[in-house]
Sequence to fold (247 residues):
Amino acid sequence: MENNDKTNNEEYNISFFKPTTKVAKFNRNLIVTLVLIWAISIFGFQILLKIVEKQTPEKAYTEYKSVRDNLKNGNADNKDKQVFVQSLLSVLGKITVAEKDKEILNAAVNRVVFELVPETDKAGFIAKLDNFKSQKTSDPNYPKLKKELADIAGKYIGVKAYTLKAKLLVSELAFAKSQEPDFDKTGLVMKKYLIHNQSFITDFKFIGFPFHYFYTAVFLLILFVGLCLYYCIAIDVNMKKMGIVEE
Fold:
């Protein structure tokens, strides 16, 4: 009696890692295979990206780097300062910039911009800026004052008044905090936002999308659904081969 109970318990003792029947073994091997395919598709692609990637700077970083040392050493001319400010505004215009990084760039922008303002114009420029700061966005004069400041500030940094950089500069000057610039920290922030990992995989376009985006956002979803479908079909086919039919 005890032997029969032991035998029955062993028959119903189902283990994924130690299957005792052909169906269970087939099921385990199939699941392991499909999980490996899924894992390799995800992590293998990420590893491949890391292997072939190359740090590629944006044009703004190259320009910033060409004048950085002159700014730090105090040997920069007005052209160098204009390039410096324009390159920093390229980062400040990004919506992904952290608040603490904005403050670092803002301090550097403000220092250099006021160095570009001629002594004869400084009093009038500061007065216009203070007047703009006192205005609310709902005030009728707000757009007019902002445009006037963009016209003036744009000339100082060497850009057209209607450009995004000129308009952005007005906001940076108006909402600046009194903070001494740290050019070493400025360099770290510029590197953080203007140097990207690129490769032939990220540069290649597939049906209008960068290939790495299409692969992770679209292909992996299709692959997952395909693996699930294949699992169901393979199980049904194997059960029919073994003569197991559901009633």
About this structure: The beta strands are 54-57, 195-198, 205-206, 209-210.
